[in-house]
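User: Can you fold this complex?
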Amino acid sequence: MRFKDQVVIITGGGSGIGLATACRLGAEGAQVVLADLSADNLAKAEPQVRQAGAPDVLCQVCDVGQEASVEACAAAALQRFGRWDGLVNNAGLMLFKPLEAQTEEDWLRILRVDLLGAFFFLKQAFLKMPPGGAVVNVSSIHALETTPRVAPYAAAKAALVSLTRSASMEGKAKGLRVNAILPGAIDTPMLWENPNIKAGIETLNANDVGKPQDVAATIAYLLSLDAAFVDGAAVLVDGGRLSKL
Ligand SMILES: NC(=O)c1ccc[n+]([C@@H]2O[C@H](COP(=O)([O-])OP(=O)(O)OC[C@H]3O[C@@H](n4cnc5c(N)ncnc54)[C@H](O)[C@@H]3O)[C@@H](O)[C@H]2O)c1
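Assistant: Here's the predicted assembly.
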């Protein structure tokens, strides 16, 4: 029960990796705040997180790309539970277009959710989370290697690793740890909706596809005191996909 009596906010907690993380943290005693843009996803996720063992769950419709919505989510969590110990910046979006067809609006839409969303929540954590708190930013292997037609996503995920380094440095004085994980291909709705995969532009070996629970276990480790000396790290969770010749 590494998270007994602790409160963790998980963005994009209504589906995929965020939902698996909520279940894992709940099973280890955490009170969980699911922050998601989709009320439908939240409604489906809540009973699963309770069934996994979470003592309490707060569902908050939140757009991570809007700072006021993020502030409201942090305030609601503190009002409901009176404390805030952990944050998982997991909400993310992809966009598939050749570079020459991308617009300024496309870039700003992706950067707003995949990068600024994490910044807005980190800012709230730095203002409101007490010493001992921990943050995990969900980046991607696209921060290191990528495929065609996803330039804004790859750039946002690389910048998220950079933001993790900056936040880890500045978080030290506040007693907060900030780490990033870089998942490979993970079996979630986002993976199977990927047109590069549907069209065979990105080929996937079945052995290279991980489960959301694999990522959740790593996030739980990084949030926990087991990782007390892990700070500013970028941890690959890709089953070794990027290491192969
Ligand atoms: N699935 C993969 O293969 C994979 C690989 C590497 C990284 N990732 C990253 O993992 C994270 C989770 O992805 P997933 O595969 O679980 O996706 P998913 O599509 O299953 O879930 C994403 C969730 O985020 C929510 N969301 C979207 N925009 C939001 C916003 N503006 N504010 C709040 N919530 C929002 C969605 O409603 C959804 O519930 C993303 O950051 C993604 O980039 C996924």
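The first strand starts at residue 7 and ends at 11. The mean pLDDT is 97.
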